[in-house]
Specification:
The chain is of the alpha+beta class. The radius of gyration is 28 Å and the shape is elongated. The chain has eight helices and 31 strands. It is 17% helix and 40% strand.
Length: 443
C-alpha cells in the first residue's frame, strides 16, 4: 500500500538549503476515472483473453445477474437556451404532416411553440412539440450541445419552451439510445465482447438512473453518458447493441446503476469510497483488474511546485499553505479523505475534491516531496529530502551538454534525507528509485 503522506514545509534536511534550493512535489498516479464498476481497459483485456461479455460483467458487478428489460423510451437533452430551432427531414410536426425536404424553424410563442417555413408561419402548437418521421432520423440544424453540427437523431425531437428559448430533447427507444452511446464511451475497434459488455452496462445505467429534470432523463455528456446520436453510431458498436438487445444487469430483481470508467490501475474501488453521497452497494465492490496494464493511463506521474499546490488548494487552509496529508484510503487504495494544513488552520476534503483541484487522473495517488540545494562550507553538496523514501540509494547527475552524467552517489537516511558531495559548479539533480528531483545550479 502507498504511504498516505505528503510533507511540504518546513522540511527537515541535513543542512539548511541555500537560496538556490528548489522544491518539487511528485504525484505518482494510477488509473483514470472514478474507479467504480467496469474498467473499460480491463474489460478489453479480458475480452482479448477469450472472456465472454457475461463473464466480464460478472467480474466487475459482483452478485449481479443478467435479465431482460421491457422496451421503453428514454429522453436525452440535446440542446437548450437557443431562441430558435431549425429542423429538416420531419414527417410530422405535432399533429400535422410535414415535408421532409423542407426546413422548419420553431421559436417560443406564448405558452406554446410557433413554427415557420421560411418567413411564413405554419401554425402555433401547444408545448411540448414533437417532431418525428416514421422509421427515419430527423436532422437538427446547427450545433447541438453534444458538439455535433447538423446531426440526425432517431425517434422524436421534442421542443420545450425553457429559459427564454427552446430546449430540444431526443425521445427514443432505449436500444437506439445505446447505439449512440457505446461508440462515444468505448472505441468501436475494440473486441466485440468488450463492446457487448459496454452495451449492457450503458443500458443498465440509463434505465436505473433517475430523471435529471421533468423534461429529460439524461445529459448527452459525461454527466450521464456520452451520446452523439446517429453521428456517433458505428457498425461494430451497433452489432454489440443488437447482440445484447434488452439485456440489463439486476441485483435482487432491480436494474443496477452500472457505473463504468476508463482505467483502474489494477484494482477497482468500493462505491462508498469514491462517491461521498453513496452508501455501500454489494454489486460495486473492489475487485482485482489484472489486464488493465494495456491502458496508457495505467500509471502516470505529475509534478507541482509549492506555489502551484497552494494556489490550487486555496480555500482549504488558513494562513499560509503548509501541507496535505491523506487521512483515509479505500481498498484500491484510492484517497477517500485528505487534510490540507495552513499556518493558521486546516480543513478536510474528499478524495474526489482533491482530484478535481489538482486535476489528477484518479484519486489513486501517492505524493513525494523533493528538496534540493547546496550545503554550507567549502565543499559543494547536493542535499535533499524524499518523502516517502523511494530508495535508500541516491544518484546525483550533472548536466553535460544535452545529457546527464553521473557525478556522485550516496544513501538516504531512514527518514529520506540525503547529502552527496559533488565537484565543481554546474547544474545537478538527484534521483532515488523512479523519482527524480528538480535541476539545481550550484555555484
Amino acid at each position: 500500500m502507498l504511504r498516505p503522506l505528503l510533507v511540504l514545509a518546513p522540511l527537515v534536511v541535513p543542512a539548511a538549503p541555500s537560496p538556490d534550493a528548489q522544491t518539487v512535489h511528485v504525484v505518482r498516479a494510477a488509473g483514470f476515472g472514478h474507479g467504480v464498476g467496469l474498467s473499460q481497459y480491463g474489460a478489453y483485456g479480458f475480452a482479448q483473453r477469450g472472456r465472454s461479455h457475461e463473464a466480464i460483467l460478472r467480474h466487475y458487478y459482483r452478485g449481479a445477474k443478467l435479465a431482460k428489460s421491457r422496451p421503453r423510451p428514454t429522453r436525452v437533452l440535446i440542446r437548450q437556451g437557443y431562441s430558435t430551432v431549425s429542423v429538416r427531414g420531419a414527417g410530422r410536426i405535432g399533429d400535422r404532416r410535414a415535408r421532409p425536404n423542407v426546413t422548419y424553424t420553431a421559436r417560443p410563442g406564448g405558452r406554446g411553440v410557433l413554427v415557420f417555413r421560411g418567413r411564413k408561419r405554419v401554425a402555433s402548437f401547444p408545448a411540448p412539440l414533437r417532431v418525428t418521421r416514421r422509421r427515419k432520423a430527423v436532422q437538427l440544424l446547427g450545433k447541438a450541445d453534444t458538439g455535433v453540427t447538423d446531426g440526425f437523431y432517431r425517434g422524436a425531437l421534442v421542443l420545450h419552451p425553457a429559459r427564454g428559448g427552446l430546449a430540444v430533447v431526443n425521445s427514443l427507444n432505449i436500444d437506439d439510445y445505446v447505439r449512440g452511446v457505446v461508440p462515444g464511451e468505448m472505441p468501436s475497434t475494440w473486441h466485440p465482447e468488450a463492446l457487448r459488455a459496454q452495451a449492457v452496462a450503458a443500458r443498465s445505467y440509463a434505465l436505473a438512473s433517475p430523471p435529471r429534470s421533468e423534461i429529460f432523463d439524461h445529459f448527452p455528456d459525461t454527466r450521464s453518458q456520452v451520446y452523439l446520436g446517429v453521428a456517433g453510431e458505428q457498425d461494430a458498436a451497433s452489432a454489440a447493441v443488437r447482440a445484447t438487445s434488452r439485456k440489463v444487469l439486476t441485483y435482487r430483481g432491480k436494474v443496477i446503476t452500472a457505473f463504468f470508467f476508463s482505467t483502474s490501475g489494477g484494482r477497482t474501488e468500493n462505491a462508498e469510497n469514491s462517491f461521498v453521497d453513496s452508501g455501500p452497494r454489494p454489486y460495486l465492490v473492489s475487485v482485482r483488474d489484472p489486464f488493465d496494464r494495456i491502458s496508457p493511463h495505467h500509471r502516470s506521474m505529475l509534478r507541482f511546485s509549492t506555489r502551484d499546490l497552494a494556489r490550487r488548494l486555496r480555500g482549504f487552509y488558513e494562513g499560509s499553505f503548509r501541507s496535505v496529508r491523506v487521512t483515509k484510503r479505500g481498498v484500491s487504495p484510492r484517497i477517500v479523505r485528505a487534510e490540507v494544513t495552513g499556518t493558521r488552520g486546516s480543513r478536510q476534503l474528499s478524495g474526489g475534491r482533491l482530484r478535481t483541484r489538482l486535476d489528477l487522473p484518479d484519486t489513486w495517488a501517492s505524493f513525494t516531496t523533493i528538496v534540493s540545494g547546496r550545503g554550507s562550507g567549502r565543499s559543494r553538496r547536493l542535499v535533499g529530502y524524499f518523502e516517502p523514501r523511494s530508495s535508500r540509494r541516491v544518484i546525483v547527475e550533472r548536466r553535460s551538454g544535452r545529457s546527464w552524467k553521473r557525478a556522485g552517489r550516496g544513501r538516504a537516511s531512514l527518514t529520506g534525507d540525503f547529502s552527496v558531495r559533488v565537484r565543481g559548479r554546474g547544474l545537478y539533480r538527484a534521483s532515488a528509485g523512479s523519482l527524480t528531483g528538480p535541476a539545481v545550479r550550484l555555484r
